[in-house]
From TrEMBL:
GO terms for molecular function: DNA binding. Pfam families: PemK_toxin. InterPro entries: PemK-like, Plasmid_toxin/cell-grow_inhib. Belongs to the PemK/MazF family. Keywords: Toxin-antitoxin system. This is mRNA interferase PemK. SUPFAM superfamilies: Cell growth inhibitor/plasmid maintenance toxic component (SSF50118).
Amino acid sequence: MIKSTENLVFNEAPKLLQQGLRIGLDALANQQPGPAAALPAGRPVSSNFVPTAHRARRIAYSPDLDGRADPGEIVWTWVVYEDDPSRGKDRPVLVVGRDRSVLLGLMLSSQDHHRNDPNWISIGSGTWDYDGRVSWVRLDRVLDVPEEGIRREGAILEREMFDLVAARLRADYSWS
């Protein structure tokens, strides 16, 4: 019973919400596009990008759906654009550590052009992407994610995939 409830809450409900959102967006599609997404009001945003080696620390897989984001979980938060800090995008982030109330996260992308980029690693597909697309994690910079800025917990990354990310952080960026 608990497993099926968790499945409904964490896997199926977000898909239904996304479908509803798409239907609404399709209905609005005939309108003129508005300006690029502005920063959300009233919620902290992820706006600090740090080279990964500067945040080197011990990394351990410890997801726990207890309401606090932990390493191994993928969460959604607003991330500002590097080239225009006044705008940004709500996106998934892999939690790899914590510094008090600030999470350390690695940005995810489903853009296929990251396939051959050495700063990105494939983690396959999962429930964090409603369309089931393969995702990549950016390794060369860490985002400071204010815990209050998390929109929702998105998924738990499989241990095997997290271990691949951790191995690259250890080998290339002096994490332990």
